[in-house]
């Protein structure tokens, strides 16, 4: 858990510093640093769902291929 919190703090810090360096605005940097990780977390949730479904489809395909190979 400490590693996760450390990574989260680093992510927010990097987001803030990059946007602040690009815009010169502390407020914009802060806003992006707070909003971006929240949106990224939601996007990651859906990314994982897609990958899980893909893995299940590949496993089902491998099972069918194995069944066909043994049926001859």
Automatic annotation (TrEMBL):
Pfam families linked to this entry: DUF2061
Keyword Membrane: yes
Lineage of origin: Bacteria, Pseudomonadati, Pseudomonadota, Gammaproteobacteria, Nevskiales
DUF2061 domain boundaries: 1-52
Organism of this sequence: Solimonas fluminis
Keywords: Membrane, Transmembrane, Transmembrane helix
Chain ranges passing through the membrane: 12-35
InterPro entries listed in its UniProt record: DUF2061_membrane (IPR018638)
Protein name: DUF2061 domain-containing protein
Keyword Transmembrane assigned: yes
């Amino acid at each position: 858990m400490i590693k996760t919190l450390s990574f989260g703090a680093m992510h927010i810090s990097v987001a803030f510093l990059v946007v602040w360096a690009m815009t010169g605005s502390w407020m914009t940097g802060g806003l992006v640093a707070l909003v971006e990780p929240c949106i990224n977390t939601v996007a990651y949730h859906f990314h994982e769902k897609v990958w899980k479904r893909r893995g299940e489809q590949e496993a089902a395909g491998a099972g069918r291929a194995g069944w066909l190979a043994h049926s001859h």
